Amino acid sequence: MSKVEKSKVKSKKSKGKSMEDILTRKGRNSRQAFLIFAFCLLPFAFLSAACRQDMHDNPRYEANEDGANRQLPEGTVARGSLDLNPSAPKVTAQAAPVSAATPGVTAGATAPAAITGEDGFPFKVSKEILDRGESRYNISCLPCHGKLGDGNGMIVQRGFRRPPSYHDPRLKAAPSSYFYDVMTNGFGAMSSYTDQLTPEDRWKVAAYIRVLQLSQRANVAELGEDDKKKITEAAAPKTETKGGNNAPGGH
Amino acid sequence: MPQLFHRGMNTLARLSIVIGLLVAGGGLMFVIEFNRTPYVTQAFQPREQPVQFSHKHHVGDDGIDCRYCHTTVETAATAGLPATKTCMNCHSQLFANSPYLEIVRESWRTGQPIKWTRVHDLPDFAYFNHSIHVNKGVGCSTCHGRVDMMPLVWNEASLHMEWCLQCHRNPNAVLREQKDITNMEWVAPKDHAEKGGAELAKKYNIQPKNVLTSCSTCHR
Q1: Mean pLDDT of chain B
Q2: Looking at the predicted structure, is the pLDDT value of residue A87 above 80?
Q3: Selection from B152, B147, B85, B98 nearest residue A159 by Cα
Q4: Chain A touched by B80 (CB under 8 Å)
Q5: β-strand partners of A187
Q6: Which of residues 130-159 of A touch B (CB under 8 A)?
Q7: How far apart (Å, rounded) are the C-alpha atoms in residues B105 and B101?
Q8: φ, ψ for residue A200, nearest 5 deg
């Protein structure tokens, strides 16, 4: 039986065309044959698609496109960073570093009503604000000033100049705006943190530093029951401060 | 017309069709799978950088938080690469004469930013935003792996669309508390997707799957 005859018999048997029919019939279905041929070429179309880059790199300029942090041109102010807190006391580079000996500031500093919002903070201090301050402190300051603010952070242990402890009487007496000032303008070996902290966050960090200071001189009588218990438990074996230097992203 | 071919050739002809299809299909599979290999996606390949900056030292050993340097990761689409000044916060004193830091000091003197080699780079037709992921509880290590163990950064994922989608279909399993966002050691507790993760999804108000997998979420 010739090939043609065979396929005729088959197509009588079933009305629908089976794949075999299509493929074995000569000449008649050249269109279908072409389609199948084209189908076989499809993989190569995918291969070539992988090489098209023009949609991957649009002409528009993206942040970090050339892998570099672009600097602010001189004399420009980033959006939203000018006068963020019009109500805040203007602290400038000229503000004299405050020490307990400076007359005039001691008055406000003797009773640092720290966390009440009367210490020059541009907002009413609340738990949310302190939480934010804590997280920003742990990110930006902890590497050097340490978890407790005693100036014994990891970077200091690696050889950086040791900052004074926040529990130094001079810094306890300083107004909160002084901390804002140090963050804004830097101080000695410490550089300014303006490009890492927004003005608002700087105030929140200052508020958190107040908390740290309080935490080290809290009056046991004023504490809640839970805290009292924790202290008596901790007091027994403990002599040194547990200066955990683990940043949240650390070990 | 005399028969040209031996009758057995019929079988061979049919067989060759089957084999041809198999080869074509196999080729297609190969291309698709090949595209997923690290060879093509460049995953797990550390990239040489102009300065031998090591996340292992800075994050792993010194415990610096990611956000000390990648300051905009919570507020903007890009995580941002640190300015030279950020390096100088410490390296004005530490290793101030190290030859490894010469490029940093030169950049500081001239004001020309250091040009880092990009590790991750999505095609421009795909929209990605760090801030929404970070603020809705997807931590760095979920996508970038243990950066604190990388002397030079490599890419932990293919960054293919299927990688984005496998998470967008069910993000509950990877959600964490805000305090753990940059914690490199965080691993999902057992049954996280059903228990803790589901609760967090409610807290973060995670959008339904059909929104997160809709084309216009990422191609806009």
Answers
A1: 89
A2: no
A3: B98
A4: yes
A5: A190
A6: 135, 138-140, 142-143, 154-155, 158-159
A7: 6
A8: -65, -45
Domain ranges of chain A: 15-43, 115-235
Which fold does the domain A115-235 belong to in CATH? Cytochrome Bc1 Complex; Chain D, domain 2 (1.10.760)
pLDDT, average across residues A170-195: 90
| Closest-CA distance of chain B to residue A70, Å | 7
Q: Is the pLDDT of residue A228 over 90?
A: no
Residue A77 has pLDDT above 50, yes or no: yes
Q: Which residues contact A195 (CB under 8 A, 6 or more apart)?
A: B71, B83, B85, B86
Distance, CA of A163 to CA of A149 (rounded, Å)? 9
Reported confidence tier of residue A130, pLDDT bands at 50, 70, 90? very high
The pLDDT confidence band at residue B191, using thresholds 50, 70 and 90, is confident
Residues 84-103, chain B: which have Cβ within 8 Å of A? Answer: 84-86, 88-90, 92-94
Which residues of chain B form beta strands (DSSP E)?
Answer: none
* Binary contact (A69, B180; C-beta < 8 A): no
Judged by DSSP in three states, B95 sits in coil
pLDDT at A20 over 70: no
Q: How far, in Å, are A127, A148, A153 from residue A179 at the CA level?
A: 19, 16, 18
3-state secondary structure of A22: helix
Question: What is the total residue count of chain B?
Answer: 220
The string of pLDDT tens digits covering residues A107-118 is 333 333 344 444
**Would you give the distance in Å from CA B24 to the centre of its chain?**
32
Nearest to A6 by CA among B132, B140, B10: B10
Two structure tokens written together for B102: 């010469």
| B89 CA to centre of own chain | 29
**CB proximity B212 to A under 8 Å:** no
Look over chain A and give the mean of its residue pLDDT values, rounded to a whole number.
68
